[in-house]
Amino acid sequence: MRIGLVGKPNVGKSTTFAALTESAVEIANYPFTTIDPNVGVTFLPADADCPCRNLRDKREADGRLESATDDDPRAGSLCEPRTGTCIGYCRTVPVTLVDVAGLVPGAHDGKGRGNQFLNDLAQCDALIQVVDASGGTDIEGNPLGPGSCNPIDEHAFLVDELAMWIHGILDSGWSRGVRRVQAEGERGLVEFITGQLTGIGGTDSMVLSAISAFKAENSDLGVPWDWDDSIRASLAHHLRRAIFPLCVAANKADVAEPGAWDALASKVESEGGILLPTSADSELALRRAAKAGFIDYPPGAKNFSLTESGQSNLNDAQRKGLDALSERLDRLGGTGLVDLVSRIVRERLDRIVAYPVQDEGHWTDGDGRVLPDALLVQRGTNAKGLAYAVHSDLGDGFIRAVDGRTGRVIGADHELNDNDVIKIVAKS
Ligand SMILES: Nc1nc2c(ncn2[C@@H]2O[C@H](COP(=O)(O)OP(=O)(O)OP(=O)(O)O)[C@@H](O)[C@H]2O)c(=O)[nH]1
Ligand SMILES: [Mg+2]
After folding, report:
1. Whose CA is nearest to atom 2 of ligand 1?
2. Residue nearest to atom 3 of ligand 1 (CA)
3. What is the pLDDT at residue 146?
4. 32 lines ligand 1 (CB under 6 A)
5. pLDDT for residue 376
6. Among 6, 8, 11, which residue has the most ligand 1 atoms within 8 Å of its CB, making it the best to mutate?
7. Which portions of the chain are predicted below pLDDT 70?
8. Which domains does the chain have, with CATH numbers?
9. Which pTM was predicted?
10. What is the structure's pLDDT at 115?
11. Which residues are registered as beta bridge partners of 2?
């Protein structure tokens, strides 16, 4: 599961990345701060309570465990995540983020950093366009003050650049494609386009859905060998929509006019995307304060509270800074970042969480670790698909699986539910 951060320079892509992955990357108020892509992992809160809650309930009911005390730092959680955390049964799941160089108009022709980095985004399951909702930077990312750029224009240019990039890839083999259509008809067209676009993540079903939308919009198309540049451009736009559906972070919302993103939100939502106002700067400050132990700020929380260490160690200036941050969070309803990524994963990418274990009774791995892994898998994934998600050997050697909640044996085709605990039995 990989999500790319794209957009014009100087909008807060790296700040978003640094906040969500809690890693140190370069951030500055000028264009092209980032040149080489940053890749890191963010941990998102799972929707449902971690199954370790059920384990605790069972053990308490059997008299094998006391209730969690008020001062339990895990707030009752019993699992032992290999990555991420679980506090108060709120389990976090890993998602890879990619932060790339800023894109400027003309990038498909090599302007700015060119579109070389688009290859870094090719393997992403979804893209988030970070826009400057405050309008304080021009289309090339130069800080020129309020009114320098409208988020709608930022979005329109990115959409065009991505489409022109796809158009270029299509055109590079178009005469070969045309020969295939002449020989094989519609199927040849789909296979040619899919072949051209697999490198950037295009699949057969994406190409089919793009072609059908393209045909619905252009009634009098004629034969592909007569399609001129503007028709191929329209096809490229539909392919862009299918391969790179865009969601938007309306960033710098803290310094934007309220509602500055409303018009763009309607546009993005009309294409099936999600737009949320965000304040990456605030999220970064909060993560740092939490890491230093001054505040409690679980991922996705709408506000924070001071810890004991915060109460006793913060100086006046730091307290004032945090008070201002708290007011900002109340005004914006949180920083928006975790919400946005979580909604994309759940609603746009339709992922559920599965917990593979080796011991279906104790829900442990071979070392006795309780619920060590929480994996995001596509809704509709079956038991064998989960085996492959764990390891290809486990998929290849799949014999059967066991539902850890019911103890029932399940077959390869059994479709998983969100929050399932599954043991996989495979040939070793
Ligand atoms: N007010 C405000 N400023 C922000 C926010 N997010 C980022 N910034 C500032 O915007 C500037 C650019 O941030 P970066 O994260 O470096 O932007 P980028 O999009 O990665 O820029 P390039 O790598 O140059 O493409 C920095 O001065 C940040 O501090 C925000 O939510 N609010
Ligand atoms: Mg950057």
Report:
1. 252
2. 252
3. 82
4. yes
5. 96
6. 11
7. 113-117
8. 164-237 (1.10.8), 354-426 (3.10.20.30)
9. 0.92
10. 64
11. 96
